Amino acid sequence: MITESYSYTVAIPLVLFFSFLLIGLAGGKLKPIVSGVFGTFFLLVSTVLSYYTAYSYFFVDGKLNGAYQKLIAYDSLWLTFTDKLQIHMGVLLDPISVVMLVVITTVSLMVHIYSLSYMKDETGFSRYYSFLSLFTFSMLGLVMASNIFQIYIFWELVGLSSYLLIGHYYERPSAVAASKKAFIVTRFADMGFLVGILLLSSFTGTFDFLKLTDPNGSALTQGSAISFLGLSVMTWSLLLIFTGAAGKSAMFPLHIWLPDAMEGPTPVSALIHAATMVVAGVYLVARLFTIYVFAAPDALIFIGYIGTFTSLFAAVIACTQTDIKRVLAFSTISQIGLMMGGLGVSGYAGAEGLGYTASMFHLFTHAMFKALLFLCAGAVIHAVHTNELWEMGGLKKFLPVTNIAFLIGCLAIAGIPPLSGFFSKDEILTAAYEKDKILFYVQFLVAGMTAFYMFRLYFGIFWNKERDYHSKPHEAPFTMLFSLIFLSIAAAVSGFIPFSEFVTPDLKPFESHIHWSIAIPAIAIAVIGVTLASVLYRKDSDLPDKISISLGGLYKAAHRKFYIDEIYMFITKNVIFNYISAPIAWFDRNIIDNTMNGIAAITNFISVKIRGFQSGQLQQYAYVMVSGLIIIVLVALYFMNN
Amino acid sequence: MNSLLWLLAIPLVTVFVLMFCNDRRQYRLSAAFGMGLQLIYSFYLVFRYTAERSSGNTEQMVFMHEYRWFESFNIIFTTGIDAISLSLIVLTAIVTFTGILVSWNTEKLPKEFFISLIVLATGVFGFFMTIDLFTMFLFYELAVIPMYILIGIWGSGKKEYAAMKLTLMLMGASALLLVGILGLYTFSSPDANLLSFNILDIANANIPVDTQRFFFPMVFIGFGVLGALFPLHTWSPDGHSSAPTAVSMLHAGVLMKMGGYGCLRVAMYLLPEAAKELAWIFIILTTISIVYGAFGAIAQKDLKYINAYSSVSHCGLVLFAILMMNQTALNGSVLQMISHGLMTALFFALIGMIYERTHTRDIRLMGGLMKIMPFLGVCYMIAGFASLGLPGLSGFVAEINVFVGAFMHPDSFHRVATVIAVSSIVITAVYILRVVGKLLLGPLDEEHAYETGDARWNERWANVILIVSIAAIGIAPFWLSDALIKSLQPIIQKLQ
Amino acid sequence: MIDKIGIEQFMILSTLMFFIGVYGFLVRKNLITMLMSVELILNAVNINFVAFNKFYYPQNLQGHFFAMFVIAIAATEVAVAIAIIISLYRKIRTIDVEEVDEMKY
User: Fold this and answer.
1) Are A176 and B397 inside 8 Å of each other by CB?
2) How far, in Å, CA of B16 to CA of A367, rounded?
3) Which of A163, A177, A191 has the CB atom closest to B422's CB atom?
C-alpha cells in the first residue's frame, strides 16, 4: 500500500541524480564555481525536503496507535525474476530511514558548502561536485530502499562514488592505489552480501523489507530449520549479509581500506568515510534487525563481539598514528565498532531495544561530531599544508574558531557531558552492561582510550610547541567556518534529542534516562584519558617518546597497524597473483593452447607421412598399380572358384 | 516484401554499392549509410514487434515467412523473430554501425574491408532471423569465412596464425554441429517422409531420449566453441588480439553471441531431456570458464588479451546461465549476451582508439592517459564498470538475473557452482581496476611521446551510442526483460 | 601346320609379351626403354584382339579394327611421349626416370 502523501520523497534522491548528470555532462563547459553552486543548490532542495519529511513523519502523521509506521512512499517494478520474486524501486519510510535522511543531507550540505572554498583552487572542481551529487544520491537511495536488493544496488553505487572520490587526485599513485583497495575490499565483502541475499531470498521468497522484517510474518521461520555445519541457513545468510556490512563499515578484518581512503580530499573523508557511507553497514544490520533478533540471535552475538573487538583494536592503533586524518579514520572504525556492539547486545521489545536505539543515536551524534572533526582537520591541513601531527602545534592562536570547533568535537567524542557523544555512548554502555559484561568492560576501556587519543590529537595540533611554518597559518574562509560552526552546534546539542521516543526496534517509543551508575565511571575514565593526554602532549616533552620506547614491540606493532596490511598484501600479491593467476595464464598459453596446437601438429605430422606416397616416381606408381591389379585378380579368382 | 528480408537486403545492396565506389570517402560514407539504415530499420522492427505483440499476437515467432529452397529435402528458408532474436539483431546492428564508425580511417584496402565486414554482418543477421536449422548453419558459415579474411589481411601481430586457428576451431565445431543438425533433421518427424529443418516443427517432434543423449553434446559443443566454452576457448584470445578493431568488436560482441543463442535455441530447446541429464558436465566446464577466464585476465599485459580473457569469463556466464534452465537464469543469459555484446564492443573500440594514439597495447608502457584523453578515459572507465557489474549499467542486470536464477536450484551442486561463479565479480573488479589504475590514472608517462588529441567525432559517436545502450538497459531493464521473459516461455516449458 | 596353332599359343605369346612389357616398364630406368616396354604391352593386346577375333568371331571384324586403332593410337602416343622425353632432356639433361620427380608432393 502506497502512502500518497509522502510520494514526493522520491524526489529527494532523484534531484541529486539530475544534478550529477547535469554537472557531469556539462561540467567541462561550466565555470567551476557555477558547478559548485549548482550542486549545493540541488542538495539544499533535497535537504529541505528531507527536513520536511522528518518533521511530518515524526511529529505529524508517522505514528499510528502509539507506534511508528513503516510507510511505502513510492514503489515501482524494476526487474522481474519470477512472478513472486521481483526487484522494486521503492521508498520506505520508517524511523531509521528518516533519521538517516536528515543525517546524510545535513552532513552533505555542510560538506558541499565547505568544499566551495576548500576545493576552490583544485583542478576537477566540477568533477568533484558531480561525484558528490552521485554519492549523495546513492546514499539516499540506499537508506530509503524498500527491499534488500535495492539496498544492494545503491550499496554498489556508494562504493563506486567512494572509489571515484578517493581517487580524486588521480595523478597521485597513492590515491589510485587507495581507491582501488577500497573498492576491491568492499567488493569482496559484497560478494558475501550478494550470496547472503541469494540465500535469504531463496528461503523466504522475497526481497521486501516489509515482509522480511514483519515479526509475525512467515519469513522469520523459513529456513531456520535447515542447518548447515551446525548453524541454521538463516544464520548463515545473515552472517553473509553481515560480511557485506562489515566491509562497508570497516569491521575487523575488512577495515584495511578505510585508513588508506584518507587519500581523498578531506571533505570527502568527512562525508563518506566518517559520517555516512561507513555507517551503511550499521544501517543494514539495523534495517534487518528483526530477522537478526528472531531468526539468528547467534549472528547478532557475533556482530556484537566483532564490533566491540574492532573498536578496541582500532582505538589501540589510533593512539599511535601520527597522520591526523588516519587517527580520525581509526577513531571512526572504533566508533562504528561501538555502534555494531550496541546492535549486538540489543533485544527487540520495549526497553530491551535500548542497544538498537543507542546504536542509531550514536550513529547520529557520531555523524555530526566526526564530520566536524574531519572538517576541522581539513581547515588545519588547509592552513599548514601537512597531515603530520608532529609538524603542527601551537595553532590555537592562528586558528581560533577551528580550535574551539575541534575542542567541541573532541569533547563530544570523548563523552564529556553535556555534549552529544556522552548521551549516546552512555546508552550503548548501559545496553552492553545489561546484556554482556565482557563487552561492557571492553567498551568502557575504549571510551577512555577514545578520550586519550582525541585529546592527544587536539593538544598536538593546537597546543604543544609552535613549529616553523613556511607561511603564517591563517584561519579558514567564511564558507568553511560556517560549516564548522553549524556542525559544532549540532555536535553540542544533538545529545538532548530523546532518541528512544523516535527510534526503537519495535517502533514503539519508550522512556530512557541516563544511568548515572554507568555514566559517572564513564565520565571519570574519559577525564582520566583527557588528563593523561594533556600531561603528555599539552607541552612539548620527551615523555611520549620514552613511553613508546618502553612499550617496544607492542607500540611498533600498533604503529604498523598490527601488520594486517602486510598480510593482505602477501595474500593478494603473492598467493593470488603469483600462485593462481600467473599459473592459470601460463596453463592457458602452454597447456590448453598447446593441446590445440598439438592437434594441429599431429594432423600435420600425419599428412607429412602420407604425402610420401606422392613421390613423383613414375615406376613406383606403376608398381603399386600393378601389384594392386594382381591382388584384385587373385582375390577375384579366389572368390569365383568358391 | 517480407519485413525481415530487408535485414538481408540492406547489407547486400550496400555491398553492391560499395563495389562501384572508387575513393575512400565514398566507401566509408556508403558503408556508414547502409549500416545506419540497417540500425534504423532494426529499431523500426522493434516498434513493429511491440505493436504486433500488443495487438494480441501470441505466436511464438512473428513475421514468419517461408521460402521453399530445396524441395526434395524439405529445406525451407523460414524467417521469424521473437524478442530474443530481435534484441540480438538490434545488438548486431548497433555493433556493426559503431564498428564502421570506428574503422573510419582504414588505410589498407578500405573497399574490401568494408565489404567483408558487411558480409560478415549479413551472416549474423541471417543467423538470428531464421528459424530453420539449415539456413541457420548456412549463415553461420557465411559469418565465419569473412572473419578469416578480415583477420588474415587487416590484422596485426600473429595474424595468419590467429586467423587459421580461429577458422579451424570454428570449422571443427561446425562439423560437429552439422552432424547434430542432421541428427535433429533425421528425427524431426515420426514418419520419415516429412522430415523438417524447422525449429518449431522439431520442437513438436518427440525425439527419443537415447538419440537426444547422442546429439546434445554435439550441438552444445558445436555452438559452445563459438561461445568460448572451456577448454575450447583458445581461439578467442589470439583471434581477438590479432583482429582489427572493428572485427574484434563484431567478433566478441556479436559472433560469440551466436554460440550462446544456438545453445539456447537449438541445444536446449530441441533436446531438453538430454540437456537436463547432461547439464552437470557443462555446468562444471562453464563454472571453470568463468573463474578461469577472470583469473587469466589478471595476469595479462596486453589490453586486448585482458579483454579476451574477460570475454571468456563473461561468455562462460552466458552458457552457465543457459544450463540453469529456469526463467530467471535464461533471461539472465540473454541479457548477458546483449550486455556483454555492447560492453565488449565498447572495450575493443576504445582499445583500438587508444592504440592508435599510443602505438602500444602493453599496459606497462602506458599511464595517466586520463590527463591527455579524458573522453576516452571516461568511456573506458564506464566500460570497465559495466564489465564488473556495477548497478545502473547493463552488466549488473544480467549478472543478478543469472545468479538469482542459478541459486533457485535447491540442491547444493548448483549452489556451490553459483557461489563460485559469484566470486568472479570480485576477480573482475580486480583486473578491471588494475587496468584502469595503470592505464588511465596515475602520473602521465612522460617517456613515451603519445599522439595527443582526444576522440574525434566518429569515435565520440561510436562510444556514445554504445554507452547509451548500456546505460539504458542498466537503468530501465524492465521493458527488455519483460519482453524476453514472454519469448522464453516456450523454451522454459520444454525444459520443465 | 598353321592349323596346329590354336588360341592357346597366341595367349601364351601375348601374356609373355605383356609381362615382359610390364617388367620392362617397372625396372628399366631409361625413359626410352620404358616407352618401348609400353609398346610391347600394346602389341600384346593387339595379338589378343586379332586372335580372339579369328578364333571366336570369324564372321566379325571388330577385333581387327581395334588392333588398327591401337596401332594408330600407339603411334601418336609415341610421338607425344618422345616429345615429352626430348623436352625433359632439354630441361634436366637426363632421361633417367628416377631423376624426373617434378610431380612430387
Assistant:
1) no
2) 68
3) A191
**Predicted TM-score (pTM) of this structure:** 0.87
Q: What is the pLDDT of residue B145?
A: 86
**Angle formed by the axes of helices A420-435 and A354-384, nearest 10°:** 140
Indicate whether B352 pLDDT > 60: yes
Q: What is the mean pLDDT of residues A412-419?
A: 84
List the one residue out of B84, B129, B61, B91 whose CA is nearest residue B330: B84
**Extents of the domains making up chain C:** 2-92
Give the tens place of pLDDT for each residue, B12-67: 888 888 888 888 888 888 888 888 999 999 999 888 888 888 888 777 888 888 88
The Cα–Cα gap between A352 and B491 comes to 53
CA atoms within 13 A on the CB side of A433: 15
Quick check: B426 and A187 CB within 8 A?
Answer: yes
Q: Which three cell numbers stand for residue A17?
A: 541524480
Conformation bin of residue A384: beta by default, left when phi > 0, alpha when psi is -120 to 50: alpha
- 3+ Cβ–Cβ pairs closer than 8 Å linking A and C: yes
Across chain A, what does the average pLDDT equal? 84
- Tell which residue, B470, B161, B495, has the closest CA to residue B329: B495
- The pLDDT confidence band at residue A262, using thresholds 50, 70 and 90, is confident
Contact A363, A282 (CB under 8 A): yes
pLDDT of A525 reads 85
Distance in Å, alpha carbon of A610 to nearest chain C alpha carbon: 10
For A324, the grid coordinates are: 591526523
Q: Which of A160, A577, A595 sits opposite B385 (nearest CB)?
A: A160
- Give the confidence band of A570 by pLDDT, cuts at 50, 70, 90: confident
Which residue is associated with the grid cell 533519521? A99
Whether A309 shows a pLDDT value over 80: the answer reads yes
DSSP class per residue in A558-608: HHTGGGHHHHHHIIIIIIIIIIIIHHHHHHIIIIIHHHHHHHHHHHHHHHH
User: Sign of dihedral through CA atoms A48, A50, A55, A56?
Assistant: positive
Contacts of residue C41, Cβ cutoff 8 Å, sequence gap at least 6: C17, C18, C21, C22, C25
Mean pLDDT of B233-248: 86
Question: Which is more confident, A393 or B485?
Answer: B485
* Close Cβ partners of A195 (under 8 Å, ≥ 6 residues apart): A240, B419, B422
The ipTM assigned to this model is 0.90
Q: pLDDT at position B336, please?
A: 92
Measured between alpha carbons, how far is A41 from A47 in angstroms, rounded to an integer? 10
Residue in C closest to A617 by C-alpha: C101
- Burial of residue A630 (CB within 10 Å: 0-12, 13-18, 19+) is exposed
Q: Which of A611, A617, A629 to mutate to test the interface with C (most CBs of C within 10 A)?
A: A617
The closest alpha carbon to A10, from A74, A71, A101, belongs to: A74
Q: For residue A119, is pLDDT > 90?
A: no
Model pLDDT, residue A227 = 67
Contact B362, B282 (CB under 8 A): no
Cell matching residue B492: 522454459
Q: Is C105 on the interface with A (CB under 8 A)?
A: yes
Separation of alpha carbons B375 and B346, rounded Å: 13
Looking at per-residue pLDDT, the higher value among A601 and A215 belongs to A601
Q: Do A616 and C101 touch (CB under 8 A)?
A: yes
Provide CATH code, domain C2-92.
Answer: 1.10.287.3510
Give the CB-side neighbour count of residue B63, counting CA atoms within 13 A.
Answer: 25
- pLDDT at residue C13, rounded to an integer: 92
Query: Does residue A326 surpass a pLDDT of 70?
Result: yes
User: Which residues are CB-neighbours of B150 under 8 A, at least 6 positions away?
Assistant: B113, B116, B117, B120, B243, B244, B247
